[in-house]
Amino acid sequence: MLRLKEYCDRVRDDAYGGSVELVEDGITAMANEIRATEPKDIMTEIEGYVDSVLAVTSPILPLIHLLNRCMCFTEESAVGTQKCSDPREAFLELLEEIRQEQRQCVDKIGKVGSRLIARRDKVATFSTSGSVMEILKNAVTEGKEITAAAFEARPNSEGYRTLQEISELGIPVTFGCDALLCKLVPGSKMFFIGADAISSTGEVYAKTGSYLAALVCSEFGIPFYVAADTSKFDPLSLLGFPIKDSLRPASEVTDMDIPEISEVINISFELIPAKLVTGIITEKGLISPHAVGLMMKPETMSSSMIHKLEAWRENCDKLI
Prior knowledge:
Belongs to the eIF-2B alpha/beta/delta subunits family. MtnA subfamily. Pfam families: IF-2B (PF01008). By secondary structure, this protein is an alpha/beta fold. It folds into 2 domains: 2-102, Four Helix Bundle (Hemerythrin (Met), subunit A); 106-298, Rossmann fold, CATH 3.40.50. 44% of the residues lie in helices and 12% in strands. The chain is built from 11 helices and 10 strands. Strands 3-2-1-4-7-9-10 form a 7-stranded mixed sheet. Strands 5-6-8 form a 3-stranded antiparallel sheet, covered by helices on one side.
């Protein structure tokens, strides 16, 4: 049974291959953890879960969205707008509602994205994304006989998982290290990536290496699509907050001794300029990156969550 401490350890170690399973496990861990029965104690426990997860996560917006929904629940309960005889059961119902919403969004993204793919197209992708995998699954179900190119995505070689999952769909994959993007991407009809956050001005926060992939697509005239549901739109960027950086331990890159005058930089995610993005595939349809800000709803943010995020982002390098 997954408990919150184990989940937080996995989040800290960047052990998840995409935000879909990250949120699924977060919901499961919180549901397994809650023990209190008195309303006040339940709300204290929930806020403790939020603080524990926030302390170890990168700016992965679906997870931030989950934490925000949890804080909204505690605030509504405090002022009496959350009417329920059993707050513990109501919280468990909220978690399950969020789980089902995410699954429905991924299903819709899969259908929208697969319509972009024609029979016998070659597609390319980078890193691991549940939304991109859903697009490819739909294409296979529709009998489109596609092929794919995928890449190593270091550190931690996350791309090997992508290779395995795409191959299991029966899609032949040409696989190479990140440095072969310019060699393997040409000939693709389109490139798909997932995303962890999208700013109000359309910049896409994704696995390091995705920016290079976008530049390669621009060079060779290949459409570059981002598969992301609207929970990945960062409303705090609309309020002027920068997206937090994601520095990781140098040991993930190499176990070699590094000269004292030198350093190893390991950043998990980077920002892709909106001008390099052809379109964003959401549960609401295919949209321009420049439409993201118009679809945001900052008023849905919990006031206490905003304060927590202010502190969370205070001591960080700014990406934008």
